[in-house]
Amino acid sequence: MTQPAHLQWLDIADRDLGVAKHLFSLYRPMPLEIICYQCQQCAEKALKALYIFLDIPGGVPKTHDLSLLLDQMHNAVSVADAYYDLADQLTPYGTAARYPSNMYFDEYNTKKAIEAAETILTWVKGQVSKE
Question: What is the gyration radius of the CA atoms in the chain, in angstroms?
Answer without folding.
Answer: 14
